[in-house]
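Work package 3, deliverable 3.1, input record:
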Amino acid sequence: MTSGEKYVAAAYGVFLVFVLVWAAIIATKLARLERETAELVRLTERRVADDVDG
Amino acid sequence: MTDYLADVAALARKDLRLELRARDTLPAMVLFVVATLVVFHFALPGGAGDDAAYGLLWVALVFTSLLGLGRAWAPETEAGALDGLVLAVSDRSTIWLGKTLAALAFLGAAELVALPAFALFFAPLDGPALAGVALASIGLCAVGSLVSAMAAAARGREVLLPLLFLPLAIPLVVGGVGSSISPDPGTYLAFLGLYDAVFAILSWAAFEYVVTE
Amino acid sequence: MSITKPSLATLAGLAVLLAGVSVVMIFFVAPEDADQGLSQKIFYVHVPIALTAYAAFGLGAWKALRLLLTRGERYDLESYTGIHQGTIFGALTLITGSIWAKASWGVWWTWSSNQLVLFLVLFLFYCAYFMLRFSIEPGPRRERISAVYALFGVALIPVSFLAIRLASDFIHPTVFTREGPQMTGEMFAAFCCSWAAITLLAYVMYRTELAGKRTDLNLRALREALAR
């Protein structure tokens, strides 16, 4: 690649990388939120069961 | 209107009187600016022209004002008095204006020493340069009191204040240096006036949001 | 979100479509610039990113103003996310701008590019936003102070721009100039397409982030409610 092509590729590449990194961070956050929601569901079900029993 | 001004005057006077009694901030500012100028003499290489010296004057002024601004809200925060003040006045912007005027008085006093020292050590200061100092000082204190109040609400306020203040001070440095070295200082003075107008109005209007719980 | 607002999926799909069309237009339709050669193509990604950053900061400031005037719950998160997006795109502007500077003039940085310098100042300012925000306890005080700071940012943009213009007269002799866009029709079309794609992408990112932050807050509230 000529140097001109390299710089163009670098500029577009950096943009792409940034967006992908952002997506990865969001995905991680989503996974955490999913875990927390599942845990809260368990907590709530247990609570409801306790209320029904007690 | 007169009540407003009376409040402002009372607040500014309070700060001045506190400083006259405690005498901790102003002497520090004066010593700091002179010491900085001396450091600059050693920092400037031999062949550097007057232009470089004017640039460094502005660095000295910005950091000296930072020093003063760091202490600007100390009387209120140390005594827990800010909440009381906020309740006591009818218009909270008077607190900002009073504080700005007091800060301006301190900075002005420091400049009364710094500017002759600069003219002695480095290069003469002409009319436009002094006008630039005056206008920029207004901007520095107007924005500085607001930003200092923000930092006062936060942890690590001594470290936070420079971070908040310096980007906002950059246009003032440009205006000030320009009025000192440019053959056409009028543009730079007009620019400083614009900055002062915009940011003083913004600070005046926004202060109450910064300071209420 | 109301029914009239297009769904996030639709917008994302549209962004992908526009991005694809833009790439085709940039690399196959728009002619190569006579002066700068291939490296001019960076313009199609650098300038829209810069414009998007400004838009994001503007959005953050607008939401901040709404917060101060109406005290609505939602505006704090929306303002914060806007500023966050703006900072991300601002950093991208600096990086792509630096690459373009190296490609055009052989240096990674130059003080004579007003746009680069402006973004540097703004980047510093908005980085301080996050430092400020995370030094204050969460609550209405933090929301208000962040909002005021966001408003100051938007006032700083034109003032800094003027300052930098004025400063260039005495800071460095202008060595590097770049021809203003004497764009052909195809170049302009490619630019508009790219701009639309990047703006849409930024908006999708904004909405996604906002949804994530809101869900986080809701889960925390739910957890606290259950703990009682």
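Chain A is about 95% helix and 0% strand.
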